[in-house]
Amino acid sequence: TDEVEQMKLNRCFLRDANASREKTTTTKKKNLICRCARDPQPKRNPTSIPKSKARAVVVGGGWAGFGAAWNLSKSGWQVTLVDASPAPGGLAGSADQGQIELGIKGLWYHYKNIRAILRELGLEEIYGDFAETGFYSPRGLEVASPIFSKQPIRLPAPLGPLAYTANRFQDLPFGDRLSAFPLTRALLEFDLSEETYAEYDAISFETLCKESKVSKKLYETFLKPILLALLFVPPRELSAAAALSVLNNYVLAHQPDFDVQWPKRSPTEVFVKWTEILKEKYEATILNSTRVSKVVFDDRKVLGVELNSGTTIGADAIVLAAGASALPLILESSGLDRCKGLCRVSELSCSAVTAVRFSLRKGSAALPLKFASNVFSGPRDNIAGTFYDVGSLQGKEAGKTFEVDTYNAGALMGSSELELESAAKEVLSLENPKFASIDIEGLRVAKVKNAALRWTPGSHGATPAMKPEGAPQGLYIAGDLVKNGPAEFPAHFGARGLSQEKALVTGLQAGVMATKDLNRSGHSYPLKSIAGPAQVEPDEPHIQAAKNCLR
After folding, report:
1. In Å, what is the CA distance from 513 to each residue of 56, 391, 483?
2. The sheet that has 440-453: what strands, in order across it?
3. DSSP 278-337
4. If 0-12 CB within 10 Å is exposed, 13-18 middle and 19+ buried, where does residue 329 land?
5. In contact, 456 and 233? CB cutoff 8 Å
6. Residue 346 gets which letter from DSSP?
7. CB 270 within 8 Å of CB 120
8. Maximum Cα–Cα distance for the chain, whole Å?
9. What is the pLDDT along the chain (551 residues), one digit of tens a residue?
10. HSE-up of 138 (CA within 13 Å, CB side)?
């Protein structure tokens, strides 16, 4: 019966919790566990949930975590979302109490699932119109990307981006642009199978470009900065497979895919509204400023999680949507790092990110940027990023407030706020030399050492599948660290790289998988099967035909 199962589960928790509290236990905590063990149907609270519903714990509060909690809640689970961040959304929202977003993130044309969520939440207006993007180097403006979806004709892939930027490069001869042509075969075959994906994953994108005779000028002017901006890793340290995935998804697969909208308001609003609906409509529990110390499981299935406080939360399914820096700690403390599908997660590394925002001193003349959003490479080697006219993005006065986000920024982690301000002015000076001597106010700085996964050569073998081999039943992994390869297409549906869309898709799909798996187990809970996330737009027919010829 449900009561007997509850009693058994509580005894497991009691035994496990007592073992972990020998040094720090308190009488109050002991009594709480004992009361739970005596009462098989205690009142609902974060540590004890009625067995009339299937219970799920989601660890991590970004797009992946909220996506999982959303689909689980819709299917009828009693959901507890546990997030170490004090604010909804974690790094996916904003740093500095909502005042500054760590790396302003765009809404790309092909982000179907994020758009669907925004519609459900009634927050479509949080993003502005599609905008052009400038690319800057120490030489100045190199190229400006148009809004491809507004061009008069949609050309077959990959002709659109090539044709509609033909007259926009400032100083890149046509011959240098044509030198990218030998990469075509790699783009067609890298994900035909797990074997080909692993082969391309074993080498760096820089090596691939050298072997393909890509011109140095094209590499330095466009490929290097765009990959640093999208994947936070310089091409010499970047898996060729990961690079090809992103270039295909964002630049080459379909003409409009590179079009992007930027937020007019803080994305934290999305997660605040999401939190309200999860709590009020679905009675989910959201625990912020709370860390999970380990997953509790037996020789067959998950039983729940233990928090750093020692509190245990029972679960029939657990979705680990923590990032690449937090996940290995949870796996190791749980003993899950011995599972075949999780034993290499600790080999993954992360990239550092800084964000600097300030305004011109009151009374200063405005310095509007030519483009509201921009990508830069240099002036420091192997560091790139983005800079923005924040007022222009938000529909306010242009040329007054600016943000500079720097990726692969490990060398800047020890910098003072004054040094980061100076570095930001240096970047803005690529667009207008007057920024070197501006007076500012309202300086805000954010620095995160382990902000984003580094897709280094060989990392594919260390990344986990959504349902890792050898893991206990009911354990799922979600987030942008889920494997990118073709075998994991049912988890990522073609969304790849360090993208909010991939994080959301894997979270949504983890909720769908958990429901299907529990329904197949013959349980008596009233769970409803729901549709999974939308996949990326399929390859165009001529691309599919070319890939078939290479299979």
Report:
1. 12, 42, 16
2. 140-145, 133-137, 373-377, 384-389, 401-407, 350-360, 440-453
3. HHHTT--EEE-S--EEEEEE-SSBEEEEEETTS-EEE-SEEEE---TTTHHHHHHHHTGG
4. middle
5. yes
6. G
7. no
8. 78
9. 444 344 344 444 434 444 443 433 333 333 333 333 333 333 334 444 456 799 999 999 999 999 999 999 999 999 999 999 888 776 655 544 445 666 788 999 999 999 999 999 999 999 999 999 999 999 999 999 999 999 999 999 999 998 999 999 999 998 999 999 999 999 999 999 999 999 999 999 999 999 999 999 999 888 998 998 889 999 999 999 999 999 999 888 999 999 999 999 888 899 999 999 999 999 999 999 999 999 999 999 999 999 999 999 999 999 999 999 999 999 999 999 999 999 999 999 999 999 999 999 999 999 999 999 999 998 777 889 999 999 999 999 999 999 999 999 999 999 999 999 999 999 999 999 999 999 999 999 999 999 999 999 999 999 999 999 999 999 999 999 999 999 999 999 999 988 999 999 999 999 999 999 999 998 888 899 999 999 999 999 999 999 999 98
10. 6
3-state SS, residue 182 = coil
Q: How many CB atoms lie within 10 A of CB 171?
A: 13
Angle between helices 2-20 and 27-38 (to 10 degrees): 160
What is the DSSP pairing of strand 78-82 with strand 55-59?
A: parallel
Non-local CB neighbours of 550 within 8 Å, separated by 6+ positions: 185, 188, 189, 192
Beta bridge partners of 135: 143, 375
pTM of the model: 0.89
- Closest to 372 (Cα-Cα) out of 353, 408, 407, 397: 397
Beta bridge partners of 353: 407, 448
Does an H or E element contain 68, and which?
helix 63-74
Structure tokens at 301: 């299935």
Answer for the pair 50, 43: CB distance below 8 angstroms, yes or no: no
- Token pair in block for residue 439: 């007076």
- Which residues touch 33 (CB under 8 Å, ≥6 apart)? 10, 13, 14, 17, 18, 312
